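ok so for the tutorial part 2 we go from a plain amino acid sequence to predicted structure tokens. step 1 is just haveing the sequence, like this:
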Amino acid sequence: MSAVLLKGGRVLDPGRSFDGIADVLVEDGKIAAVGSRLAREGAVVIDVTGRVVGPGFVDLHSHVNSVAGQRLQAMDGVTTALELEAGLLPVEIAYARAKEEGRPINFGFSASWGAARAEVLSGREAKADFVGGLSILSDPAWQQNSTPAQLATWLRRLEGELSDGALGIGILQGYAPLTAPKEYRAVAELAASAGAPTFTHVREIVESDPTTPIDGTAEVAQIAMDLGSQVHHCHVNSTSRRHIDRVLRTIDDARSGGARITVEAYPYGAGSTGIGAAFLAPERLPVWQLSPDNLVLIATGERIRDEAHLRQVRATDPGAACIVEFLDDENPADVALLQRSLAFPDGIVASDAMHVTWPDGSTDTREWPLPAGGMTHPRTAGTFARSLRMMIREQAVWTWLEAFRRCSYLPARVLDAVAPVFGGKGHLGVGADADIVVIDPDRITDQATYLDSTRPSIGVDFLLVNGTFVLRNGDIVLDAYPGRGLRGELK
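step 2 — the prediction. this is what the tokens look like for a chain of 491 residues:
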């Protein structure tokens, strides 16, 4: 592996709060030195004057699990993309498959609470397949309360997954929102006893459903306070919608009480999920202040016409990915809510990236540029560049150092306890993994839209993963697959 010397860039290392002009030397996939006037005989020298150099972004919430999706994320500055909210089951298969196929960026998986429940309550064999697993969303059996025997069985399944290297437990509580809170607590207790984090799509908040067994954010906050464990609240912007200020106060109060609760957001007013999700049932949409025509099928771009159309699609293709318009990206008041989500102290940027689907039903390719006709959510291609554009250049809310803290350093720290390998991620200290992004600060922006969703971001000039170039001069290196599987280690 050749040494690489990045010369003269503005280096930002959130690990030691460093912001200054420096050189960065990479050897054997690690940061060998950061300083002025560095030299190394035989090194590949890249002049990055006028560019920002920092640790590659660590995305805690990505469902792409493919070469095509990861390449879009690499163009957005991501060096590590993790499937943690939903998780996969069995993780052994997920890691083996990704390693065999090759990945341009690093990958990792949590244990899937939803898949474990579905195995026991619905008799559905888990195959470590996120896309195929979306069809379970409309199956009422796995959304029911468990008997004591069923609970014990799927808890053992999750415990085995942690032993196999899962990076925690991903809990899609919002997809089975009426299950008993004691079941959620049992999962959290299992994770806490193993020293593993949980990653939760919370159940409904009280403003959206006064009949909910417990407010979703209050539930995760209480668990974090009671157990002292690492609890991660996924995409707070989409689960809170126009009630974000109250939800963030709940999280802030819990933190003030000592809770280890982290939170993530993405900079879009629309989410994406399988159309069979419980909260997209026609009778549930009004509590979200939505109607069927706020749903758009990703594969075809077709907008749901009315309640009858929604019921028909949910019955015939419950796993179909759709766009869910919960805020208006053109409404200044709604945009301000998104910005408050991103500006929340110690808030983490995460994409909730979705797979790309082509008209023939395929979800991956090694072709680059991507073939025409692929559809996804624009957050797959643009979350990080869009966040930087909005929060640094347009709003001046973040400094560049703060941006790297939120996009690289803080997400890596969520996983330190369960996976020591993350100690080398999210910073540029000597000995850290050489996951590095080089950005043109004046050009960085997203290009993907809801109608043209696979347009890559621009402004990421170089990306190194474990010391290997995945991007050079703003484009993909076609034969680069240096991504590694990052696994948990039980304490």
